[in-house]
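pinging the channel bc i need a second pair of eyes. not urgent but kinda urgent?? the chain im working w is below, pasted from the shared doc
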Amino acid sequence: MTELVPSALKNEFQTALNNGHLTLHYQPIVNMKTGALLGLEALMRWNHPVHGPISPGVFIPIAEESGLIIDASKWALKEACRALKRIEGRTGQNRNLFISVNFSARDFAEDSFLEDLYTIISASDVLPNQIQLEINDELLLSQPDTAARSLELCRKAGLKIALDDYATARNPLEILARFPLDTVKIDNILCKTLSNLPELVQTALNRNITVIAERVETSDEMAHLRALGCGAGQGFYFSRPMPERDVTELILSPQLFAGKVA
């Protein structure tokens, strides 16, 4: 296999984006008390014709640095909305699920970001409260005033806002106090050694903010995180990210995740 060269990947990522070679996989977000499916996180995938599957950890930073992430994020939102409508139509999950889509600081810096966001969602027939914008602390701390205004407008439009990697963010409690958030996500693997994790979770809950645990891998981890106050979880214990067709089959299965949380 030939060596991955970032400069070449930049051009090839543009080609992949233009020619429809990117796909989305969806990871279920599960109510850890009832086992109900709450929503799905849309995750970008790139299967390169020469190199095969390329990790998002490789191509997302390249897309962000080059500015291509802006078009990629628009594509991801549009495709995620379409997929959600198809899944609803096939499973009868009418307006019950939300879809979580990742956005970067580069996306929010675009003058047309909010207008493009509203246009895509309006054309999709998906309700605004079925869309969760997933962001990280880089956006909030690098351009706090712009972020605060933009997020408030998103909230007024009915969109949900989720902060990724909340417990390991810089100044997480300051972020909670300053920005309008509906959800915070904690990375189970990164947070295992944090002594202040219970305090961080409880502070979020006191503000009526939902806490989602990511990278839940075992039943013991699920039980511990649930006892900590995390109402929802996602990770390999529940399901790996999967193509749209597999999501449909999963939702139509009789037990879904009930056995996982019993």
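so The longest strand covers residues 37-48. and The domain at 29-42+77-253 is CATH 3.20.20.450 (TIM Barrel). — does that match what u expected or am i reading it wrong
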